[in-house]
Amino acid sequence: MNFYFTIMAPNLSRLELGLTDQVYRSFLSVLTCYVSKEWESLCRRSVPMAHVNNIEFGPAARWWGPGMNRQPIEFDIVAESSDKKSILIGESKWSFVENPVIALKRLRQKAELLPLAAGKKIITVLFIKGTSEKEIPANVFLPSDVLERLR
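Above: the chain sequence. Below: its structure as tokens.
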């Protein structure tokens, strides 16, 4: 449905005129942005569907605002645990991440500045398109993991 209203509906006149090459080129120019937004949405939807580190989380949302250092920060995925003792903070990247361990460490440092995390156990997660690493670290989710969680 989102694809139709984002890509097809604005181009109906061109499609009716048979200008499919124009529509296709237009689509290609926004494809990466469109897919990354959809990926982020799927990742957020997958959070409450299965435990992470044996912890059950509620619905996830985006978060942005001032950190504890008063600098603006933004997170793609934030969810509170059902028992309110933990907070899941995640990043969604529709790209290949060469070193997920380093990315998780950076996310952890950033997550410690989140005011909502004060006094809670912080669980950091990455949702990525892929990596060249042979062993995928814990709390790194690939597309197959997200789809499995959504089943």
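The two ends are 19 Å apart (CA to CA).
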